[in-house]
Amino acid sequence: MFWKYLDAIIEGVNADEWNSFSDAKQHDIAVRLASRLLGQSRTALLKFALSLRVHSPIVQLFQQLGAENAVNCDAYAVVHGEIVCDAEDLERAVGNASESGPPSTLYSVDHVYPKSRLHEITVVVYGELGSKSWLNLHLAAERIARNNKAKYVFRHWCREARDDKVLLSGYGVELAIKNTEYKAMDDSNIPGKTQSEEDSDADIRDYDDINGFNFNILRKLHGDSKESLDQFRLHLLERDELTPLKVWQVQDLSYQASQRIVSAPPEKALSLLTEMSQNFPLLARSISRQSVKKELRAEVQTNLEITLSELGIGEGESALLINGISVDVDQLDVFATLELLKQEQKLTEGFYRLGFKSARLVTCYTMFQATSRTMKKFVSH
Q1: Do residues 127 and 133 lie in contact, with contact meaning Cβ atoms separated by under 8 Å?
Q2: Which one, of 74, 177, 91, lies nearest residue 132 by Cα?
């Protein structure tokens, strides 16, 4: 797969322009080319892995190995200790490899050309993918490997590496000291809001539905009254927050909140969940008017009576399930979660190739769950 990706880079990237692209554009091009080989689900996992910097340690290892050799070229090859910067000299260096010295030490994370793994002569190319200097050496080394003259290994390396720190995903804790003195202030005019933001016609988050008013639409229809509409929206929010809900309005609030999230478009579901979790008191009255489908109530009851009891989860506790596999939220490891997602994606892709579509997979999983419950009841009796 890696070498097919290199072929895609050669075909889809102009090597003369690569170094002039910004980091963001290089990232977008790299992901777009990879998506043609990976498909939608695996591309999503690739983006997740890139955001976690999963492969950064390996790239940094290659960078340090490449920096150990004092070279004056943007890409180079090492053939048994001999350094080659010109692709035309690579063939000669391979021919003299037996007289040069021992081959380079290889690691389990190295990218080895598949048709040359067993050859004793080793050619290690250091360079930046997409660049002109790398392309020339790559084509020469690939030709040598195809002719079974040497083993071709590629390592990521950039001659002018920047001093930017590699940002690793993690968690931070902040201690915020709160001032208990409350001050009255008009927050309808938010400090720092630019004129372009106020005049923008783009939809604003949290402006969709407040007491039946869609303020995004109102702002577009009445562009000259945006400030008044913002004040009216703030008034409605404050009134809803201060007005207590009736008992009958609260009893189904959890169902109604779940229904609103489930009914939202897939691309907005997570942002809506975040919004409701952080601003629930402000949105409670609006949520109380949400109608709840019978199917949702039945599913929640089933989860409470069967699924959650099997997992040993009580009311008010949380659980994370990935394709029915329980993940311990108290010891949640994002890297282990990524590996689990990869395994499940590979398994699902195998079913898909056998002709099982998403609807059939859900049916099979439901039947498996029902069979498991029946067997447990039979064993217990």
Answers
A1: yes
A2: 74
* Cβ contact 75:43 at 8 Å: no
CA 368 to chain centre: 30
Task: Report if residue 183 sits inside a domain.
Answer: no
The one-letter code for the residue type at 69 is N
Query: In a 10 Å sphere around its CB, with 0-12 CB exposed, 13-18 middle and 19+ buried, how is residue 35 labelled?
Result: middle
Q: What is the pTM of this model?
A: 0.64
> Is residue 185 in some structural domain?
no
CB 121 within 8 A of CB 151: yes
Give the domain extent around 220.
Answer: 200-243
Using only C-alpha atoms, the chain has a radius of gyration, in whole angstroms, of 29
Please give the Cα distance from 97 to 107 (Å, whole number). 20
* Strand 151-156 with 122-127, pairing: parallel
Domain count, the chain: 4
155 forms beta bridges with 126
Burial class (CB in 10 A: 0-12, 13-18, 19+), 375: exposed
What confidence category does residue 275 fall into, taking pLDDT thresholds of 50, 70 and 90?
confident
Q: Is the dihedral of CA 105, 110, 111, 112 positive or negative?
A: positive
Tokens of 61: 């290892």
In 3D space, the residue among 135, 134, 129, 121 whose CA is nearest the CA of residue 92 turns out to be 121
The answer for residues whose C-beta is within 8 angstroms of residue 279's C-beta and 6 or more apart is 206
In the predicted structure, residue 356 carries a pLDDT above the cut 50 = yes
Token digits for 282? 């402000």
Q: Which two tokens stand for residue 303?
A: 């989860």
On average, the pLDDT of the chain sits at 80
Q: Contact at 8 Å (CB) between 104 and 124?
A: yes
In a domain, 260, yes or no: yes
Residue 156 to residue 130: CA distance in whole angstroms: 11
Tokens 């400030």 belong to 227
